[in-house]
Amino acid sequence: MIQIHCPYCGETLPELEFAYAGEAHIVRPESPSEQTDEEWAAFLFLRDNVKGPHFERWRHAHGCGRFFNAVRNTITDRFYITYKAGEPRPDLAKLLEESK
Amino acid sequence: MSKHRLRGRGRVDASQPVVFTFDGKPYTGLKGDTVASALLAHGVHLMGRSFKYHRPRGAIAAGSEEPNALIGTRRGPGRFEPNTRATVQEIWDGLETNSQNKFPSLKWDVGAVNDAAYMLFSAGFYYKTFMWPRSFWDKVYEPFIRAAAGLGVSPSEEDPDTYASRYLYCDLLIVGAGPAGIAAAREAAGKGLSVVLVDENSEMGGTLLSEPQSKIDGKSAWTWLEDELAALKEAGVKLMTRTTAIGYYHENMIGMVEKLTDHLPTLPADTPRERMWRVRAKQVVLAQGALEKPLVFHGNDRPGVMLAGSAQTYLHRYGVKVGESPVVVTSHDSAWYAAFDLQAAGAYVQAIVDTRPQVRQDLQAEARTRGIPVKLGHTVTATGGRLRINTVRVNPLNGTHVGNGQWIKCDALLMSGGWTPSLHLFSHTKGSLIWDDDLTTFLPKDTPEDCIITGASRGLWGVEAALKDGSVRVGEALSKLGVEATVSDYTVADDRVGTGVTMRELPTDRSAGKAKAFVDFQNDVTAKDLRLAVREGMRSIEHVKRYTTNGMATDQGKMSNINGLNIAADALGKKQPQVGLTTFRPPYTPTTFGAFAGYHRGDHFEVVRKTQIDGWAEENAAVFEPVGQWRRARYFPKAGETMDQAVARECAATRASVGIFDASTLGKIEVVGPDAAEFVNRMYTNPFMKLAPGKCRYGLLLGDDGYIRDDGVIARISDERFHVTTTTGGAARVLTMMEDYLQTEWPDLNVWLTSTTEQWSTVAVNGPNAAKLLQPFVKDFALTEDNFPHMSCVEVEVAGYPARLWRVSFTGEIGFEINVPAPYGRALWETLWDAGQAYDITAYGTETMHVLRAEKGYIIVGQDTDGTVTPYDAGMGWAVGTKKADFVGMRGLKRPDLVAKNRKQLVGLVTEDQSCLEEGAQIVLDPNQPIPMKMVGHVTSSYHQGTTDHPIALALVEGGHSKMGETVYIPMPDRTIAAKVTGTVFVDPENARLKI
Ligand SMILES: [Zn+2]
């Protein structure tokens, strides 16, 4: 079982407390009605399906209830970092360097 | 003393005889025996029949890797387990065991004709058979396979045992208590660390139990072992036997199953049969040793053919000679010692056959001294004997040329193809492996976990090497744990180290096409099957595995994987690492469902949520149904009533006078804050900005794809406070969705969301007399049409309790929902129930609720919708606030597919013959079209117990809204039903009945 650091609680806790919530940094457009069909379909359905480091969302469902972001390697399941919703996307190259 | 038992040898207790039965016949063994060792002591080698060919089989090994000797064990009613390995099951007085896969008897088996029908069952048989004509499948193959298939027989009774589940956190977990594991534990002990040492066997010691000749630091192996384990215990190391590490999961979580009672003659009170340990260890040492490889030759599965190292185990640990006149065949030095030890124990070893032309001089000299004939550069090409080996054919090898065979009489054939490091748990960590050409095996390389692997698991042989390696290698873990790494030195005398070569199938002078040289004994996969798979185009080892089923049996290929790889690689003309190894998956050994389920069975399988009114329902004979995790009253039958009769009565009574319903399970979310209205307005399709406090509005929740997700009535309690209701099953999902939008898309909104589902008890009263019944209990507030019209809410005192009183209806009748703080629910219910007697009040359940709402065309999300239904499809365009700037799903509703013509739309159906349709039944337009017919929709709801004079149904039908009055058809197995398409409202379309 993976252990995940909740950036709000500041604790590393078993995966059981968390729920996966899809790819991160997909922002709902400010004015959906101005979106073309293609743009809206992309927002709804198109995801990266990454093999390797993946920016994704988790929710501390059985804890503080907060959604947060994470970078996890989909091959090894290792988390490089978790960070609060709204914080900028971390520099991946730097993260990978630090994790060595 | 049984015939083949050596008095005073082994670790069994000669003073404690134990009687058990095998296929109904009693046998006497000794305390400490396994079923296999006890049977072998009586000369019984035949222990089962193989899975596919029903060939007679005996124990080939002495431990958990055993593929052949699978038995059923029984301890009275309910306690039956199939596929237990006889080599692991300890005996106790009264244990009943049975052989498997035999009919009518183990010695005379009809299914053995499969053996003759060999061609039928060769590699890829299952896949090829599926492609044959269907009639063949039904009439020939399926009955044949069904009769032959199945490993053992499933238990049919409920398991009376209990299974426990525990967590364990430690600094260091050591898996495997052989020399390497014990040496690692010694360095870790007494340093203030929590250290756990586990072993799957009934006692610790590993190879020291099987080969006790070595002297460690001047002590005999068993004295050293005893002293060492006592010292570890003294130092606070937690020692766990009969505990198998079944899987290595992320971040050093190891699953372990501890067997507590399977070896006991009487079951101790209040003790679980097994305990599943979920261990989180800061550091892990894997010291699981190595497994011996069989040799692959024609007839290598005959009872009496056994691994040489296992014969050593039976001799030294159990004091059992597996044969009086054995032959040894090997490509590795280690089997020579088995020959020496058996000869020393009084057996007459007929020959040591070694495939290698050159073997160490000291081994040859010792064989000569002991008078054992040696045949170097020889191969084995066949065995003879019906239910037990009695002869073996040995041929000289000259390069690749196989000379003439010579038959040698024997009663056992001990084989060794060398040793394979046990890398199962290491592989679970996604550890990488590296091919070692000298050892012809994979060795462990890197692992992403905090894990160290030591001893024979990484290709080291001999006790001294294992001890030293364990002592040194654990140092890395100790340093990471912040304690000083120390190293003990060990001196081992009479250690046995050796080398060998790896063979594929042994060379033979016979037709390879006819050879039954088994690689996977449990799944009956031969070398020929593997080569056939490659000839038929399988290139990846994973494909070869699935095509032949090599390594897919319950032993997970512990013996067959490497032999299978060597043969497949040869057939492909590639090196082994280019072909690759199949993936090892947990569990390491077969594990009971009980161990995984733990406490989660029976009443503890799932949480049962009960409302405050549940007790009243139970006392009043309600029949319950699960909804989400709630237990809901489905209907309240009077004596002798069927469900249909009860529901018809409840429906009629509610429309005639008044019905009372427990609506407490409805999901409730309190939405509070300055931006509460804005938030609700953005989430739901309907306009909410202008909804006045004291008013309710039906709300429809979509996903951003435009499909209906949930619905419910929403009350505006005050400017900044909404009481939102959701479907019973959707409560958690809706709150999560709201939180998602609030936290991540609109963090600027000042809103708080709180789940209040369990804070309120909700009592619904519906019917023409509902207002009359309720009015006397409502303090200073008139329940009139003017003062409290439909879709209003008020905070008021009801029957002395603070309440949120709503005027809403899910039945089409005058309706109220009274929300009171949860603990008052039952008292309020009983007050209304007592007063309601004057109006013949009737309690109704979810079934009546479903019928009454369907008569009004009110949808149930998840029943009349399926995640692909829009508000327009459902005929609920009126609920969509098209003038709003945005709401969740607004843009989605304009997607091309959602505005396309001929979408499935919700309609009513009335059958022409007054029959009641089946929910889920498919609908066609032309019943005479050829099969397969074009299906245009399905029935979503259907009832016949309601207050209309005919059954009603709701259905999703392509273009349904423009098919009013048309006839559609519902083909059923026995007939085709015609139905007229109607609107969805069957009762009171003018809503006159809602008026007080
Ligand atoms: Zn948290």
Automatic annotation (TrEMBL), chain A:
One of its GO terms (molecular function) is sarcosine oxidase activity. It holds the Pfam family SoxD. Gene3D superfamilies: Folate-binding superfamily. InterPro entries: SoxD, SoxD_sf. One of its GO terms (biological process) is tetrahydrofolate metabolic process. This is Sarcosine oxidase delta subunit. It comes from Celeribacter baekdonensis B30.
TrEMBL record, chain B:
The keyword Oxidoreductase applies. Residues 171-426 form the FAD/NAD(P)-binding domain. Keywords: Oxidoreductase. The keyword Lipid biosynthesis does not apply. It comes from the Bacteria. Residues 616-884 form the GCVT N-terminal domain. Residues 515-598 form the SoxA A3 domain. GO terms for molecular function: sarcosine oxidase activity. GO terms for biological process: tetrahydrofolate metabolic process. Residues 904-988 form the Aminomethyltransferase C-terminal domain. Belongs to the GcvT family. This is Sarcosine oxidase subunit alpha. It comes from Celeribacter baekdonensis B30.
